[in-house]
Amino acid sequence: MSDLTRRNFIAASAATTAAVMIPGGVFAQGSDRLKVGLIGAGGRGVGAAIDSYNADKSTVLWAIGDVFADRVNGAEGTLKNEMKDRYQVGDRKFVGFDAYQKVINSGVDVVILTTPPGFRPGHLKAAVEAKKHIFMEKPVAVDAPGVRSVIESSIAAAKAGLCIVAGTQRRHDLAYREAMKRIHGGEMGDVVACYAYWNQGGLWMHVRKPEWSDLEWQMRNWLYFTWLSGDHIVEQHIHNMDVCNWALNAHPVKATSLAGRQVRTDAAYGHIFDHFATEYEYANGVKMLSMCRQIDGTASRVSEHIVGTKGTSNGNTSIKGEKNWRWEGERPNPYMLEHRNLVNAIRGGKPINEGRQVAESTMTAILGRMSAYTGQEVTWEQAMASNESLMPSKLEFGATIPVPPVAVPGTTKLS
């Protein structure tokens, strides 16, 4: 594990040159176009492609890939209309489990990785090995082996001078960035507690069709299967935990969680939980209280709250205390800013690499899930050392993939 240390990661990042470098050619062999390949053509993928289009006039969409043909065709209809002459996909539309590799090999400069998170580590590894710059949605893994793989790929990307930008868009939001600058500058004193919330109603579900295999049904309802999404504490709540990790410039060292599947119990919703409440503790003794829920008819709250010795903050628009502050500037769409910052980093030859940061925030969420599923306190070291791989051994349509049972705290074992 010594090669995965933060020290080595920083050293690898520092070793990159300051010259403009896009391995394989600067903007497609001298062109000012930046060719973008989309891997994962669902709603988030289409949104990310449009954000890339709006971020910089040099970007063109060059290739699309997805496991499902209907997703590729649906994305094409929307993106042609949005991008006009900057939609340059032509016949570079790829379908199947190897579509990601075909997009990577299609002559692109940048890949957008927006498939279900279970696939992210493998897709990132392939993109880095092919010397592509990367935007990848959060979370970036669903288990510890996946997190370790992402960290290894991030180190390799840093050594190669490649950019990795992650879909934790609060890190690119101008208000969040200004608030964090002030928090890190001591305007709230020392951070002594954090609170993270993502409580809302239920989300979409596609009723199973008779012709769908186990695999197709699960992939089309990927939110509800831990091997694909990581459970909603990982897939969704990662945003709020990432803000708390950011405020503390650290990750937790242990977690104790209680959670369950109380309302969303129908088999159509897979096997994930519908609520979590987790206490995290950091190395300096600071604790974060985390809550997330997806139950209709319940109170909604999506926010963060940071407590310091001299004030409090919501992490983005205000600080209240000895030094009051409120954000009053313009606030461009942070989803677009992620892609603008990526393009600017590529052009400027100053690679940015958010791989380690998003891997640690992903692992923070997985740590909470592990504690919830087992009913035990789980340490960071235990979680990171886990060899439990959630990805099925055989991925092909028609394959029988039984749904794992719902975890039972107190009887489920830590792998």
Helix content: 25-40%
- Average pLDDT reading: 93
The main sheet comes to: 9 strands, mixed
How much β-strand is present in the residues? 15-25%
Radius of gyration: 21 Å
Structural class: alpha/beta
Question: What is the overall shape?
Answer: globular
Oligomer: single chain
Helix count equals: 15
What is the count of β-strands?
A: 15
Poorly predicted regions are 6-30
N-to-C terminal Cα separation, in Å?
A: 18 Å
- What is the succession of H and E elements? HHEHEHEHEHEHEHEHHHHEEEEEEEHHEH
Side-by-side strand order of the widest sheet = 14-13-12-11-7-10-9-8-15
What report would you give on this structure?
The structure is a single chain. It contains 15 helices and 15 strands. Helix 7 links the parallel strand 5 (133-136) and strand 6 (164-166). The strands form 2 sheets. It has a 9-stranded mixed β-sheet with strand order 14-13-12-11-7-10-9-8-15. Strands 3-2-1-4-5-6 form a 6-stranded parallel β-sheet, sandwiched between helices. 37% of the residues lie in helices and 19% in strands. With 415 residues, it is an alpha/beta fold.
